[in-house]
Amino acid sequence: MDFFKNIPTHMDYEGQARAEKLSRIIITVFGVVGVIWGYVIQQFSQTVYILGIGFALSLILTIPPWPMYRRKPIKWQPAKDGKELIHQSKDQGSKKGKKK
Amino acid sequence: MHSVLTRGNTVLAYALSVLACLTFACFLSTVFLDYVTNANINTVKVVVKNVPDYSASREKNDLGYLTFNLQADLTHLFNWNVKQLFLYLTAEYKTTNNELNQVVLWDKIILRGENAVLDYKNMNTKYYFWDDGNGLRANENVTLSLSWNIIPNAGLLPNIVATGSHSFKFPSEYTTYRV
């Protein structure tokens, strides 16, 4: 089980947007090409196969978290020391109420 | 799009939507086509018998017997939205019992890619030509016509009657020969 949990699947936010956009473009392009080709040779099955290739390609390109989807990770604030945090929240609690 | 499953789901759902659109495009590209064409039908031998139809009752009914010629070129009916044609040959006639009688005498399935040029000489009918009484003997006007049913990938299932039918009359005497 640990092996499966350790497979990386994370994409950053911009990566997710790019992945979705890319998959839409690939499937649309293959669909349009497929319908034109199928009409030319009068075989609808060819249209379906071409769309299937586009589907497989977009699965390969957008499901694994390729490096191009992980270029802009979120920059978190540096973690503060635990003790300090407790003191702070107590001080703020007495004056203004809770604040994050 | 944050996990493998949501990404897979998105891609699959979009691919299926596109497939539905393409199928609809295929339907639209063929829905206004005219599938009517000409067929040459001729009868060769026509006799009528009066024998009991045991499948219905013991009464004697008229049984027509005929052989026919059929020529038709259906090649151009096939396109990317036609999987097969179901051809059937119908006899239509009027009797005192019924205003309209229709009997299917013969049928054939032509799959896409098979030979669609029909040229039959002296063919036997596939099904019995039973009348439900004695309406066949000396019937002056029996019309044979070829129709087909188009089985598409997507869309309508049109029934089309070919232009070119053949009318014939049955003899006024029952035959006693074996046919």
TrEMBL record, chain A:
InterPro entries: Spc1/SPCS1. It is a multi-pass membrane protein. The keyword Membrane applies. Keywords: Endoplasmic reticulum, Membrane, Transmembrane, Transmembrane helix. One of its GO terms (biological process) is signal peptide processing. Its main location: endoplasmic reticulum. It is found in: Endoplasmic reticulum membrane. The keyword Transmembrane helix applies. It holds the Pfam family SPC12. PANTHER family: MICROSOMAL SIGNAL PEPTIDASE 12 KDA SUBUNIT, SIGNAL PEPTIDASE COMPLEX SUBUNIT 1. Belongs to the SPCS1 family. Component of the signal peptidase complex (SPC) which catalyzes the cleavage of N-terminal signal sequences from nascent proteins as they are translocated into the lumen of the endoplasmic reticulum. Dispensable for SPC enzymatic activity. This is Signal peptidase complex subunit 1. It comes from Acanthoscelides obtectus.
From TrEMBL, chain B:
One of its GO terms (cellular component) is signal peptidase complex. Keywords: Endoplasmic reticulum, Membrane, Signal-anchor, Transmembrane, Transmembrane helix. GO terms for biological process: protein targeting to ER; signal peptide processing. InterPro entries: SPC3. The chain crosses the membrane at residues 12-33. Pfam families: SPC22 (PF04573). It is a single-pass type II membrane protein. Its main location: endoplasmic reticulum. It is found in: Endoplasmic reticulum membrane. Essential component of the signal peptidase complex (SPC) which catalyzes the cleavage of N-terminal signal sequences from nascent proteins as they are translocated into the lumen of the endoplasmic reticulum. Essential for the SPC catalytic activity, possibly by stabilizing and positioning the active center of the complex close to the lumenal surface. PANTHER family: MICROSOMAL SIGNAL PEPTIDASE 23 KD SUBUNIT SPC22/23 (PTHR12804), SIGNAL PEPTIDASE COMPLEX SUBUNIT 3 (PTHR12804:SF0). Belongs to the SPCS3 family. This is Signal peptidase complex subunit 3. It comes from Acanthoscelides obtectus.
